[in-house]
Amino acid sequence: MRILILNGPNLNLLGKREPEIYGAEGFENFLESLRSKSSCAITYFQSNVEGELINALQDAEGRFEGIVFNAGGYTHTSVAIGDAIAAIDVPVIEVHISNVYAREPYRHESKMAKSCVGVISGFGLTSYELAISFFETW
């Protein structure tokens, strides 16, 4: 199974930015470990640019069987990303490192969740592992 992991804005700063919330491990190190544990072929893309994330979603058709997507702050603001997820046939799981429901009220609303097969939030980087595990058994 081919899986695309998409990370949105500021997730390139994992390990440096607010480690008390997001942890001290950088995503690249975690990704190496995740790939070694998974039976899936995992492709990774990160962008701070909304349009690039939308392009990646649209380009996933026919190339991937699942998408694990942490849209960062765009989760709560981007109608366009929500529309892109609704427009593609590739199943998407929304993931978050922190428990967004234990944080600021504006983080409690997702513009993309209604078009995703599920949402995983609050388990640190393990949120990605849980999403990959779902796809491995789906």
CATH class: Alpha Beta
Instruction: Report the portion of residues in β strands.
Output: 15-25%
CATH superfamily: Dehydroquinase, class II
Q: The CATH topology, please?
A: Rossmann fold
How would you classify the helix and strand content by structural class? alpha/beta
Question: Topology, please?
Answer:
Blueprint: E1 2-7, H1 19-22, H2 27-37, E2 41-46, H3 50-59, E3 66-70, H4 79-87, E4 92-96, E5 118-121, H5 126-137
Parallel strand pairs: 1-2, 1-3, 3-4, 4-5
Helix pairs in contact: 3-4
Describe the protein.
This protein has one domain (2-137): Dehydroquinase, class II (Rossmann fold, 3-Layer(aba) Sandwich), CATH 3.40.50.9100. Helix 4 (79-87) links the parallel strand 3 (66-70) and strand 4 (92-96). The chain has 138 residues and is of the alpha/beta class. The chain starts with a strand and ends with a helix. 33% of the residues lie in helices and 19% in strands. The protein has helices at 19-22, 27-37, 50-59, 79-87, 126-137; strands spanning 2-7, 41-46, 66-70, 92-96, 118-121.
Summary of the model, kept short:
The protein is an alpha/beta fold and 138 residues long.
Features:
single chain; 138 residues; alpha/beta; Rossmann fold; five-stranded parallel beta sheet; globular
